[in-house]
Amino acid sequence: MVTRVLVTGAGGQLGHDVVEYATRSTGNDVIGLTHRELDVADRHQVRSVVPDLRPDVIVHAAAWTDVDGCEMDPDRAFAVNALGTRHLAEVARLLGAHLAFVSTDYVFDGEATRAYAEWDVPRPLGVYGASKLAGERELDPSFTIVRTSWLSGVAGRNIVSTVLGLARQSDRILRFVDDQKGCPTFTEDLAPALWRLALDRRPGIFHVTNQGDTTWYGFVKAILEEAGHSPDRVQPIATSELDPPRPAPRPTNSVLDNAALRLGGEPLLPHWRDGLARLVRACHRSEQAE
Q: Which residues, at least 6 apart from 164, have a Cβ–Cβ distance to it below 8 Å?
């Protein structure tokens, strides 16, 4: 039986790759809606548009992910990330549809000395993490929550494309923090895993990241190496040295243990270096095609 799946935030990195993966690799009916086509913060629009599409499953990838922007505009952050999720959950219940929500490592405060498992208590430091945690709390226990981190993909801006652009434009030294640790995750790898959990209607929280962890400095160093640039062009700094300082606090440690997948015998995503190599090659192909 063909399943009809609605993907919100289809113009973003993850939403784009979920739609691409599903269209290319599955026989299901996939509908991707961008922010322009569906503003999840608008309850009237959600209740008008989504029921007419009659999805069996909703993959909710739409979000406001500007961490510093959220800190400066909490109302917008909660309107999109929390209330928008409430609106979709409301419609999903009316339709009997399953909802899979994409959340974040920023629900944790970063004080743990180990990787965070799904059962650890969230304590967000800033508005972005708080608004995403509020979105999690709008969901029924039967719905799916996928927490992920440090996303990069071919659609839209991300640290990989930013660093490659800086490396092409000048020889100046780059400075990135070496005291924030996390798991770089690539949307090309995450999309199939998210799709599988959503279509299987798996209940509960899942941490889904590429394997391995690093700091932002280590990540940028690897990007330069993979692209054939000298890794010596990046220098490590402390978060306290950022000039200007960032409005939003960041967790020192936001490494996610993919415990629910691992303990359940489910396949894990490949190491982040594998995903990085593929994305750098894709960026090079895109440059050559322009």
A: 223, 227, 280, 283
Q: What are the tens digits of pLDDT across the range 225-260? A: 999 999 999 999 999 999 899 999 999 999 999 999
- What is the CB neighbour count within 10 angstroms for residue 131? 28
Is it true that the peptide bond before 244 is cis, omega within 30 degrees of 0? yes
pTM of the model: 0.95
**Amino acid identity at 10:** A
Among candidate residues 260, 120, 125, the one with its CA nearest the CA of residue 180: 125
88, 50 Cβ separation under 8 angstroms: yes
The active-site residue, picked from 21, 106, 116, 128, is 128
Residues 9-66: tens digit of each pLDDT? 999 999 999 999 999 988 889 999 999 999 999 999 999 999 999 999 999 999 999 9
**CA within 13 Å, CB half, 275:** 26
**CA-to-CA distance for 224 and 255, rounded, in angstroms?**
22
Known catalytic residue at 128: yes
The tokens for 249 are 């606090």
Q: Which of 13, 16, 45 is nearest to 30 (CA)?
A: 16
Q: What structural domains and CATH numbers belong to the chain?
A: 4-152+184-212+255-271 (3.40.50.720)
77, amino acid identity? A
- Residue 121: Cβ-neighbour burial (10 angstroms; 0-12, 13-18, 19+): exposed
Residues 6+ away with beta carbon under 8 Å from 96: none
Name the DSSP class of 28.
Answer: S
